[in-house]
Design a protein that fits this description.
heterodimer, A: about 230 residues, mainly alpha, two-stranded antiparallel sheet, 4 helices, B: about 130 residues, alpha/beta, Rossmann fold, 4-stranded parallel β-sheet, 4 strands, about 35% helix, transport (chain B), ATPase_V1_fsu_sf (chain B)
């Protein structure tokens, strides 16, 4: 009897039917899991398409504002002062660039590059915030009020805050200088509308980088679904 | 080393623009303009004198350059070279069709959405599941 139990092949059709039911159940569960994965991928794809269209709508608004400001600047400064004939054709490097992270080992259909904007030569934080800088004074600390002897930790905290604010000032003055250099193509004194047009197009660039990442996600999800 | 991507990981790259004068001017104000030693720029201004051949040549050049990661092209310009834009399928540089002043964005003509639109057809989805 024990041998018969151990070797179900000797027992005939009843254990075979049970095995078939078990196998069918496993196949059905595996099929449900596969369908579940497929549904998840389709949902991810639909989300990325929706995100892409929303970003495109935002981009259209930013560009429209930029064109309007540019037209106002041209109206106040004169058409000859806001024209492509003034573009500098001397050798120059772009101030605003992109950082691209792409896996070289993947096939082009599987590739999912990540774009990050580097405005005015300064690296922006990525969306996933993997490289988020540690904030000064992030550790909770007790404050000592009215104490004659200031603890050493407090001095370090003040130094860190001072360093951070001087970094912010440096950053902002660097950005101002870079912006002024870009505007100087159109002369020394420019209309405020040209400055606001510049800001609008900078916003458009940020949206464009998000669009590029959304496009990568969409195409990657699409490849997964096709497989 | 074999199998390297055109743009190595984490290198800086440019944004190319093929669009009308105002759009190019705006993006140059935002700092994307680049002119190399051979006086080659990363932008092309399209006006009524620009030929389709010039647009095609600019598109082919920008998509083959290793230092360009995104190519922005006005959708109405992309429509002039639609066969080239739709035939492009590399991940980098990414081609993004943008609206222009006189031609708003139309998702029906976007090459990326055209590539994936068959998934939205109920017939094709139903036949895949059968």
């Amino acid at each position: 009897m024990a041998a018969a139990v151990e070797d179900p092949r000797l027992l005939g059709s009843v254990p075979g039917a049970e095995d078939a039911v078990e196998v069918d159940g496993a196949v059905e569960e595996g099929g449900r899991a596969r369908d579940g994965d497929g549904d998840e991928e389709i949902l991810r794809f639909m989300d990325s398409v929706d995100g892409y269209l929303l970003l495109m709508d935002s981009l259209s608004s930013a560009l429209r504002q930029g064109w309007l400001d540019l037209a106002s600047a041209r109206h106040s400064m004169g058409p000859s002062r806001v024209s492509s004939t003034l573009f500098n054709h001397q050798e120059q490097s772009a101030s605003t660039k992109l950082q691209v992270v792409d896996d070289a080992d993947l096939k082009p259909s599987e590739s999912k590059p990540l774009f990050t904007l580097s405005k005015w030569g300064l690296q922006e934080e990525s969306a996933s915030n993997n490289g988020a800088p540690v904030q000064a004074g992030s550790k909770p600390k007790l404050r000592h009020r009215g104490s004659a002897t200031i603890p050493e930790d407090g001095k370090h905290e003040r130094d860190a805050i001072t360093a951070e604010s001087s970094t912010c000032v440096d950053y902002s003055s660097h950005v101002q200088r870079a912006r002024s250099k870009a505007l100087s193509v159109f002369g020394g004194l420019v209309s405020p509308k040209l400055r606001t047009a510049q800001i609008s197009f900078e916003t458009a660039l940020e949206l464009i980088v998000e669009l590029a990442n959304s496009r990568s996600n969409m195409l990657a999800s699409f490849s997964q679904i096709k497989e | 080393m074999a199998g390297r991507a055109n743009i190595p990981t984490n290198s800086s790259a440019l944004i190319a623009v093929i669009a009308d004068e105002d759009t190019v001017t705006g993006f140059l104000l935002a700092g994307v303009g680049n002119v190399d030693l051979r006086k080659k720029t990363n932008y092309l201004i399209v006006d009524n004198k620009t030929t389709v051949k010039q647009i095609e040549d600019a598109f082919k050049e920008f998509t083959s350059r290793e230092d360009i990661a995104i190519v922005l092209i006005s959708q109405y310009v992309a429509n002039m070279i639609r066969f080239l834009v739709d035939g492009y399928n590399k991940p980098v540089p990414a081609i993004l069709e943008i609206p222009s002043k006189d031609h708003p964005y139309d998702p029906a003509h976007d090459s990326v959405l055209s590539r994936v639109k068959y998934l939205f057809s109920s017939e094709s989805v139903a036949s895949e599941r059968r």
